[in-house]
Amino acid sequence: MSTALAMLAAVLLDRLFGEPRRAHPLVAFGRIASWIEKRMHAHQRARGVFAWLLAVLPCVLLLQTVQQCLPKWLAWCMAVIVLYLTLGLRSLGEHARPVAAALQGDDLDAARQAVGYMVSRDTAALNAQQVAAAATESVLENGNDAVFGALFWFAVLGAPGALLYRLANTLDAMWGYRTLRYERFGWAAARIDDVLNFLPARLTAFTYALGGRFESAVRCWHAQAPQWDSPNAGPVMAAGAGALGVRLGGAAPYHGVWEARPELGEGHPPDADAIYRALRLLHRGVIIWMAAALLLGLAMQGGAHA
Questions:
Q1: What is the bridge-based pairing of β-strands 252-254 and 247-249?
Q2: What angle do CA 127, 175, 46 make, to 5 degrees?
Q3: Could you please report the per-residue DSSP string of 97-121?
Q4: pLDDT digit string (tens) for 53-87?
Q5: Are 273 and 257 in contact (CB under 8 A)?
Q6: Nearest-angstrom CA–CA distance, 43 and 46
Q7: Residue 302: pLDDT above 80?
Q8: Are strands 247-249 and 257-259 parallel, antiparallel or unpaired?
């Protein structure tokens, strides 16, 4: 039951305060990772594995050691804070709503600028529909990366699990690219993130189905996800698009080149309302997870007293 209450407390903290504006620990970790990369980079998978271990394991082991030395109530408070710092639920809304508002105001330049903070594609080449699609895709995908994935690993391994997941996710965002520099060095970061996200991504896809158009979500998930390059983003975005009843995916510009991507979802083209509905779908999913965690905690507590 303490785990469920810790999850609820962390979500409420995120709701109230959002991400820290200054001195976010993940920003500090990113600097450490960059320092490690500069000194260890080589076109070798083994060097990438060692760099990943050097960046992540000391942080996770230190957290675990400190928690074991604290009284239970203080260790619980620390776990809540760690989970809160790994969540980005409110932050997603803070980034996505300005995009939707700009689209509603027919200010395409402002919408392009705002969505540029959410995605890595060339936003200057996007029309209004493509901007809406980019923001909606980002909300759906990051619903797994910045919310459900951290909650899952917290439920499984406690605060060290949530920290391990978030740091691995951060390294994937920094090193997990199929470029000349990172193809071999970043291989471990990409593969470890894939492994850690395998179960959370499918639970996220199922959560989107429960919170939206269930049959459409499941149909799109099974038919479209295998066509997507990422084994985890595919199920999440396909199910999310189906749950919303919108069409996502399709060609997108990266580094001046339009890259072909499979289509996701079904129904209407995305617009500003699709962004708002994606955020509401995400919040419904969090409510589902909190309710499930509390019910499971009560059931386990009842079983322990029986």
A1: unpaired
A2: 155
A3: HHHHHHHHTT-HHHHHHHHTTT-SS
A4: 999 999 999 999 999 999 999 999 999 999 999 99
A5: no
A6: 9
A7: no
A8: unpaired
At 231, the amino acid letter reads: P
**Tens-digit pLDDT profile for residues 182-228:** 889 999 999 999 999 999 999 999 999 999 999 999 999 999 999 99
Write out the two tokens for 242.
């189906």
Distance (Å, whole) CA 178 – CA 260: 16
Ramachandran region, residue 119 (left: φ > 0; alpha: ψ -120 to 50; beta: rest)? beta
Q: Classify burial at 54, counting beta carbons within 10 Å of its beta carbon; exposed 0-12, middle 13-18, buried 19 or more.
A: middle
| Residue matched to tokens 């509905």 | 277
The residue written with tokens 């470890």 in the block is 192
DSSP state of 146: I
How far is residue 135's CA from residue 240's CA, in Å, rounded to a whole number? 13
Furthest-apart CA atoms within the chain: distance in Å: 64
Distance (Å, whole) CA 207 – CA 245: 15
